[in-house]
Amino acid sequence: MDTYVREWLKKDRHAEYIFLLAVTLLAVLVRVCVRSFISDDWIIFWDDWLLQLKSKGFLGLSEDFYDYAPPIMYFLYLITRLPMNYMTAYKGVCCLLDFAGAAMVGALVLECTKNRKRAVFAYSVFLFLPTVILNAAVWCQCDMIYTLLILISMYFLLKDRPWPGMWFYGAAFSVKLQTLFIFPFLVILWVRKKVDLKHFVTIPVMYFLGILPAWLAGRPFSELLDIYIAQGGQDRWSLSIKFPNIYQIIGNDYFLDEYMGAGMYLILGILMIVMFWIAYQRVRVTREYVILLALFFGILTTYFLPHMHERYLYLTDAFLLIYGMMRLRRFPLFVTAAFTGIMGYSQYLTKQTPPVPYGVLAILQLGILIVLGLDLYWFPMYEGDRQKLDDEEEGRIPG
Questions:
Q1: pTM confidence score
Q2: DSSP codes joined into one string, 291-343
Q3: Tens of pLDDT along 342-372?
Q4: 333-338 long-range contacts, CB within 8 A, separation 24+
Q5: Coil, helix or strand for 241?
Q6: Contacts 24+ apart (CB under 8 A), 164-170
Q7: Tell me: the pLDDT tens digits for 214-244?
């Protein structure tokens, strides 16, 4: 009997490997087919930045022609060193990161569920998620860079290894300001004594290391410190840039200056209230709870912040897929989020008005937020004695 079971498991494992290989090859072919599309972002930004780095070399980083964090520019500089078409090289590297990101999504699902089939399914779905394909292979965007770093950070945090987890989070912050969307979940982990205050030093340290080469190249230190502040002052022409949040419901083109300030204070107030409540909630901090925290705060923050872009749900889509694999009845939320996300992408890439009004998409997004909020509210309380709970909070994150 034992021999039969071992043989069956061996065949099952071989079938998984064949499936993974087939899915991976198909995902490569999809990206190859769309590689020649030239987006506006490539024409306006990336191509010009690459040409400037090509002509001026690394010392070109001393100038202010770019408004992205310096680590992205180091990536572009390396692209200019490659003996091939820049757009092909850029898309190729970003698409390789798609596969690394899919592998991390699968690894997180496996870590949280101990179910190989769910992990394989999550890997496959992520690779064929329309927004993931369009982001790098079509649009020429690189949101997978910071998303991959966040996924690695989450993996280490779930493994109760806060130092590498926070180093990777700091690296993600040095690449993209959007990592702050989920920052409140780290505050809750600190309250729950899963990370220490000393671990947060990784964030400024990694940011400093990220800007150091550009500073050495000659760009003023004050400018490098202000890059994220400068980014926050852009896109004042619209409260929501093809993004399904509250401003698509209350009015996207009115009271721009007033709502910009009010929206910032509104979300800060909401976050303070929510974090205060969560901090006093008696709950068992499991892997599912940690994933839910990051997911909830990512969606909550972007729903009320003004000037959000259509790409700013990229990270939460990954976490929503992981959460859907942990709690299967929530998988429809992932499908809904994928649908709302593709509408903004399609309008940018095709210049056509999406078939579903953004107000409707914003209501769908609100529905996702409410369901996740209720999941957080009703998250299973620990039923053992209170002393055991206190002891557990001092220890490891349970499965």
A1: 0.92
A2: HHHHHHHHHHHHHHSSSEEGGGGHHHHHHHHHHHHHSGGGHHHHHHHHHHHHH
A3: 999 999 998 898 999 999 999 999 999 999 9
A4: 333/368, 333/371, 333/372, 336/364, 336/367, 336/368, 337/313, 337/365, 337/368, 338/129, 338/130, 338/131
A5: strand
A6: 165/195, 165/199, 166/195, 166/199, 166/200, 166/202, 166/203, 167/202, 167/206, 169/202, 169/203, 170/202, 170/203, 170/204, 170/205, 170/206, 170/207
A7: 999 999 999 998 888 877 666 666 788 899 9
